[in-house]
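Exercise (ungraded).
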Amino acid sequence: MIKYEGLELVSGGVCAPKGFKAAGVHCGIRKNRAKKDLAMICSDQLCDAAAVYTQNLVKGAPILVTQQNLKNGKAQAVIVNSGNANTCNADGEAKAAAMCEIAGKALNLPEEDVIVASTGVIGQVLELEPIVSHAEELAKALSYEGGHDAANAILTTDTCEKEVAVRFELAGKTCTIAGMAKGSGMIHPNMATMLCFMTTDAAIDHEVLQKALSTVVNDTFNMVSVDGDTSTNDMASIMANGMAGNPLIDSVESEEYELFREALFAVLMNLSRMIAGDGEGATKLLECVVTGAVDTQNAKIIAKSVITSNLFKCAMFGEDANWGRILCAIGYSKADLDIHKVEVILSSEAGSLQVCKNGAGVAFSEEKAAEILKEEEIKIIVNLGDGNGKAVAWGCDLTYNYVKINGDYRT
Amino acid sequence: MIKYEGLELVSGGVCAPKGFKAAGVHCGIRKNRAKKDLAMICSDQLCDAAAVYTQNLVKGAPILVTQQNLKNGKAQAVIVNSGNANTCNADGEAKAAAMCEIAGKALNLPEEDVIVASTGVIGQVLELEPIVSHAEELAKALSYEGGHDAANAILTTDTCEKEVAVRFELAGKTCTIAGMAKGSGMIHPNMATMLCFMTTDAAIDHEVLQKALSTVVNDTFNMVSVDGDTSTNDMASIMANGMAGNPLIDSVESEEYELFREALFAVLMNLSRMIAGDGEGATKLLECVVTGAVDTQNAKIIAKSVITSNLFKCAMFGEDANWGRILCAIGYSKADLDIHKVEVILSSEAGSLQVCKNGAGVAFSEEKAAEILKEEEIKIIVNLGDGNGKAVAWGCDLTYNYVKINGDYRT
């Protein structure tokens, strides 16, 4: 977990901010009874809300319904199932809308104030019966300590829950922002992401909230790649219930907006690292730090190209300092750069090692390289010397287990 | 091997056209003495020549030297080593130029008439000594039956030689076009390709030859992807020595140009299929056929997006009819299409099966799907209903062996 000055990491997940309850249960969409498959989050008060969605032309039905429900910038609850994406189904939108209706009824609030999401296999008809028959149980299970259960229920091939909450001061009031996410496979977000549900007790206008979310997602989730496949169901939503009692943040020009944005960045950056490190089959978290690019956009293109290269990812799995593949991925990234100035450094807790200077190899100790690459968190530092652009991207290695998991996902 | 009317498939590889000798030897760039690592092709006469190169910003040193040597559109010989890419080396260009000089001396022809190429690890200094000490042996080994030895010597992780030769009539004369290629990993050509060396005895002006090559490469090699990584050393060259005796083809408007282009297409299309089917670790050749796209460009984008998806490639390895991943890859391709009209059919020698209609799933027999996907050659047919654009792309499945080969390539 990366810490930031002025921010305190706290436990409790999406229930860490005031006035948010959550729960997760097994309802039967998944056959495995040991795996929770239905999650709910509910705020004590109506919230300002914002969301970003996948840019895939094929959009999951829940996304279309959520977009509709968030048009007024308000929401109070979230319902999510795992095990079925409810995507590419002729009856998908009707089923997603029914999920909102079921949740609204159980919580006694308007269905238009419900955010709905689904994750799992594409193109299999979603049965509503398990959700209908477990909605009451789920609503009753809601508690101020239920964040972890909810974080568990949204997982698919993830191996661990992904939760972050940070506490900070806003105009003399203690505010909290929290998020839970699922990632693992089909992860290469574009303008939106895998599933992520955030809560905050800060008071913030929904238009300003949307701006903060979109800005921060561009530098966090959109810089993660597990396998280059942009999912059909990516969504990140945030609900702000204002119960921290801070004066409403209603402008992006205020100091409070900056503080809020920074805290949100800390939450999403940490979730991004968790998603990358827990990519399907992954044994290593890879972080590519690009500096000296012509501008930020070019730095982003390069960082993401390196982190997305299958060949580079395999080399990291093999703990092989095959830096030529990094140069190759920089070269085909279509970024604007002078390849003759490129410098590459491999770094981890075991130390740092320069492997490339002026676009050509330098003599290095293979022994030292092996030590560095043995670690579970590897940093690839690319210095370009072309300007002031910098960016960070996160990914993971490509392993036998990725192939295993995805060679037989449906069965 | 796909056959075309009016074209006869013949043996002999790059030596099938009149007046071309070839050879392949082990010179010692590779440690494994059983593996040939140095190839040569030589024409009895000076040829019109053309080539296309990688669009990677990082370009192998041999590419820069070959570009220089082909400026006058003439060449007579090719020298290629495997085991070392001679790329990202400070002394790379000097070494590549020296390879031309060594070949020219051994063959008694100007070094400017030599095409040079290298394939293997990036960023390791190329030792010239093995080439110097074996140049005479290689030149002496040249023969009209040496095509297969040359095709063998250029392989890296390929599991088989890739050679095609076709014979056809041109203005009453029998002409032959042949090619040998290597592929396997770092294969996602962009405007050029993996290594491919073609020979023909047709008489054709080098500018017209360049046009034919560029056009055909766009529909063949540029539609192949093994792993999404565009290599630094991709190159495809062709030498035409005119010994078939046909009247010189000096215009793209002629009927003879069309016949030549079609024969060249047959050679490169078959080599493309061989490269895809022999991708690193591959167990299956995947062919994605897109029809009904708005235009050819959109059809190409969609076909290539499907064939490049890691998730789809893993599903094919697992023989799992997970068609949702095909829809997902179509959706993020950025192509212009109406997703609600998409139809997907899986096909192989075992039969055909529709799995998706109007962008949604249709009920299908999993048993039948399993039978179809058991085959080694799988066709994915995507019908869009948006227009007349069509395209074909070739790829392979993503397997444990891909990860194995690339987790430890250098050692």
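Further reading is listed at the end of the chapter. For now, observe: DSSP finds eleven helices and 16 strands in chain B. Residues 8-277 of chain B form a domain with the L-amino peptidase D-ALA esterase/amidase fold (CATH 3.60.70.12).
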